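Re: the multi-chain job from yesterday

Posting the exact lines I submitted so nobody has to dig through the queue logs.
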Amino acid sequence: MPAISLSPQVLAKYEPVIGLEVHVQLLTATKAFCGCPNQFGSEPNTNVCPVCLGLPGSLPVLNAKAVEFAALASMALNCEVRERSIFARKNYFYPDLPKGYQISQFDKPLAEHGWIEAPTADGSIKRIGITRLHMEEDAGKSIHDGLADSAHHTSIDLNRCGTPLAEIVSEPDMRTPDEAFEYLTRLKEILLYCAVSDCNMEEGSLRCDANVSVRLKGAPQFGTKAEVKNLNSFRFVRMALEYEIERQIEEIESGGQVKQETRLWNSGEGRTYSMRSKEQAHDYRYFPEPDLPPLIVSAEFLAETRKKLPELPEARRARMIAEYELNTQDAFTLTATREFADRFEAAAKTARSPRRVANVLLSEVGGRLKALGLEQEHSPVSMAGIVQAADLLDEGKISSKQLKQLFDVCFEKGEDFSAVYEREKPEQLSDASALEAMIDQVIAANPKPVEQYRGGKKTMAGFFVGQVMRASKGQANPALLNELVTKKLAG
Ligand SMILES: [Zn+2]
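And the result, C-alpha cells for all chains:
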C-alpha cells in the first residue's frame, strides 16, 4: 500500500459517504434491441448486425425477455416498477460505441425506491436504499493488449454492443468499505437467485463503480465525491474505498480540496489515479430515443413476472434456521447458492429426519471439505449418500462413531457413501441375547452405579450403555442397547 498514514484521531473526525453503481448483463439469449446472440467468448465481431452496429436505417426492437429479467431484479430488490418508462439516448463518442450514443433510461427509469438489507459489523441489519434500476445497452470492447500487434494498435470487438444491462444505483447510504462489500455480496446473491445474470466479474457481466466522499462528522452537506472505476472484484472495491477515503481526508487535512473526478483503481499498486474530471449528466445531452416507444409494463405482465420470483436468500435462511434448527453461519453455508440449497432441501425431504441430514452435511461432509480446502461440488459423497447415512444413524443401524469411520473411507478413496457402506457394512450386534449377556456382566461388575441408578439417578444408564458399547467394540446396535439396558436396570 502507498504511504498514507493518518492518525486514528484524524480519521475519526471524518465520515465517509459511499454509493455504488452496478452494471449487470442480463442472461438473455439475444441482445437488447436485435436478434444477435448475447454470448461471451465468440470470435470477435461475429455477433453483430446493422442494428447493434448502428448502421443508418436500422431500427431497434426491444427484447421482451430483457424487460422481464430487469423487472424480476427490480422486484427482488424491493423496487417499485414504473408502469411507463422511457428509453433515452445518452450521447458520447467512444471508439467501441459505433452509434455515437447508448440507449439507456434517464429521467423515467424502469424502477425506483428499492432497498437491500445487509448485516453490519455489530450484528445488526442495515437497510441500504436503491435509488433506481434502469435498462440500457452495453458498448463494445477496446482491446489494448494481448494481441500480436497490440504494441501499435488498439483493436475493437463489437460483439458486446447491444448486450442488455440493468444498472442498479444505490443511495449514498454506506459509511464504511465493509458495508459496501456486504451490499455487493447481498446484491450479487439476489441476482444469482433470480437467475437474471451470471454475475461473472472476470467476464465483465457484473461491474461496479464506487462514488465516495468524506465529510466532518455531523456536517450537514456531503463532501465532493470522486468516482472510482476499474474495480473488478469486491475485494478491490473494499481496498479502493479504503485508499480513497484516506486520500481525501489527507487532501482536506493538508488544506486542499477534493476534486470532482473519475479515478481508476490500480490493483497492482493498491492506489487510485485521476483519469478525467467527472462529466455531468448534461454533458451527455440525453433525449428520448425516437426509435422506441415508451415502455409500458402492464399489471398483468408484472403479476406474471412476480410468479417467477424465487424465495430470496434472506427469507430462505430465516425459514431454514427455523425448520432445521440451524445457526446463522450454517444457514449461510446451506444457501450459498440457490442450486445447492435446492439440492439439499430436495434430499432432506426424503429423509427420516431432515434436521439430521443438515447435521451430517454440515459437520461430517462440510468439516472434511474444509480441512481439505475443497468446495462442495468436489465432495465424493452425494446428497443421496448423506441422506442414506443420516437415515442409518437415525434408525440406530450405525453409531455416530461408525458413521465417522465410513465418511473417512469415503474421503480417503473418493467414493460415495452407498458404495463404502455396502462394502464395509459395519458389523452390528443386534442379537438381543448376546447383548443381554454383556449387560449382565457389566451390571455384575459395577454394583455401585447399579445402586445409584435404582436410587433414582436415571442418568447412570448412559454409563452402562457406554461400557457395553466399549465391550462390543462400538458394534452394539445403539437403539436396541438403550432399550435393553433400561429393561435390565429396572431389574
Ligand atoms: Zn445485432
